[in-house]
Design a protein that fits this description.
Length: 93
């Protein structure tokens, strides 16, 4: 069974712009919090956000440990050639 889907056309609602806020308007206020110096995200609870950064650093340390362990095992078994610095043996560059 073939169906034809037709897209309807709706008129856009008219929106009147809000008047410019005045100094005495209570809706105009500075938001609590500030931007994080590390990642630039807007932070309301600095302690909670610092915990997030600690968790990310802990995860990266663990990932580095696992990568180093894999590299040591691979070098010990001869799967890869031990690297010294940034130079690669046999590289034409």
């Amino acid at each position: 069974m073939n169906r034809i889907i037709q897209m309807g056309h709706r008129d856009k609602p008219t929106v009147t712009p809000d008047p410019t806020p005045t100094v005495g308007n209570p809706s105009v206020a500075t938001l609590p919090g500030k931007a994080c110096a590390v990642c630039g995200v807007y932070v309301l609870d600095a302690a909670l956000h610092d915990g997030y950064h600690r968790q990310q650093q802990r995860w990266m340390r663990r990932a580095d440990q696992l990568l180093n362990l894999f590299r040591q095992v691979a070098e010990a078994r001869g799967w890869i050639v031990p690297s010294t610095g940034n130079s690669r043996k046999g590289s034409s560059r």
